[in-house]
Amino acid sequence: VQLVESGGGSVQVGGSLRLSCVASVDTIGRYCMAWFRQIPDKEREGVAGIESDGSTSYADSVKGRFTVSQDKPKNMLYLQLSDLAIEDTAMYYCAKGPDFTFRGQGTQVTVS
Questions:
Q1: 2-57: per-residue pLDDT in tens?
Q2: 68-80 per-position pLDDT tens digit
Q3: Contacting residues for 3 by C-beta, under 8 A, at least 6 apart
Q4: Is 37 helix (H, G, I), strand (E, B) or coil?
Q5: Measured between alpha carbons, how far is 37 from 48 in angstroms, rounded to an integer?
Q6: What secondary structure does DSSP assign to 46-74, as a single string?
Q7: Which of 26, 33, 60, 71 has the greatest count of CB atoms below 10 A from its CB?
Q8: Hey, which residues does 22 pair with through a beta bridge?
Q9: Mean of the per-residue pLDDT values of the chain
Q10: Between the CA of residue 67 and those of 25, 41, 72, what are the distances in Å?
């Protein structure tokens, strides 16, 4: 399985970004997918998840600000980040269930 994240960047507090994750064929919509974030020397944090049926879940820290979505024909997973806060600064990864192993390089989000 290949997962490649992109879309990160440096934004000011209150700004927005859209992260993208391109996946191998027949991954999106077939497995539970999730976005995680991690900062150095800290445990990774689950941010948002989306099931194969499209149902979603979010960490309390991002509810109402982040939106996860998927495009099955394009094999794409997205994470819309809005009203960003300094605490959202991290490397963001997409991952496939059930193991949710990080397979890509991640994409850095920096909020200042």
A1: 999 999 999 999 999 999 999 988 888 889 999 999 999 999 999 999 999 999 99
A2: 999 999 999 999 9
A3: 21, 22, 23, 24, 27, 93, 94, 95, 96, 103, 104
A4: strand
A5: 10
A6: EEEEE-TTS-EEE-TTTTTTEEEEEETTT
A7: 33
A8: 4, 76
A9: 95
A10: 23, 26, 16
